[in-house]
Design brief:
This protein is mainly β. It has a single domain, classed as Beta Barrel (OB fold (Dihydrolipoamide Acetyltransferase, E2P)), CATH 2.40.50.180. 12% of the residues lie in helices and 40% in strands. It contains four helices and twelve strands, in the order ββββββαββββαββαα. The longest helix has 6 residues, at 57-62. The N and C termini lie far apart (39 Å).
Length: 171
């Protein structure tokens, strides 16, 4: 069994494994990065630490996964209650991403609940989807009849995704 924190971006439902979630913050000010050629949109202060915040919407839009491409699967019951947020917030992740950044934040439009998925409830990424989908998605599930795309955070927050102009080179 694995737990996923669900959230929403532009009306679409996503989830990430809770093992990567350090904390969930209320909406707060983000200092924008000027003219940055990156999906890192700005910086925020988390308990005295400067944490970069990224926006994966552009990358996820390029995967070309739409509602009709993923067949309806078994509906998953909602799991643990967490403070659902209508106003969104920032999910702080702790992940090894090939950079010196120990933490990174993702600004979500809405923070959902933690769902529990047993083995077999996470539908695999279908073979006919674009290669980018297999890189960024672990699979799909349905909660309350709504598709949730479970993200592979290690790829989405990788050095190559965060700083594409570097082409994956180390500084």
């Amino acid at each position: 069994m694995r737990q996923y924190l669900t959230f929403e971006l532009d009306g679409k439902a996503y989830g990430v494994g809770v093992e990567f979630v350090n904390s969930v913050l209320d909406p707060q000010d983000i200092t924008p990065l000027p003219r940055a050629a990156t999906i890192v949109t700005g910086l925020t202060n988390v308990r005295g630490n400067v944490v970069p915040v990224f926006d994966p919407r552009g990358i996820l839009a390029q995967t070309l996964v739409d509602e009709d491409m993923v067949p309806q699967g078994q509906d998953v019951q909602e799991g643990l209650d967490v403070a659902e947020s209508e106003d969104g917030g920032i999910i702080i992740f702790e992940i090894e991403n090939g950079t010196l950044l120990p933490f990174i934040g993702l600004e979500a439009d809405r923070i959902g609940k933690v769902i529990l998925l047993e083995e077999g409830q996470l539908a695999a990424v279908p073979d006919f989807l674009p290669d980018a989908a297999t890189r960024y998605f672990e699979g799909f599930c349905f909660v309350g009849g709504r598709r949730h795309s479970m993200l592979r955070l290690s790829a989405l927050a990788s050095r190559e995704s965060l700083f594409p102009q570097e082409g994956g080179r180390r500084a």
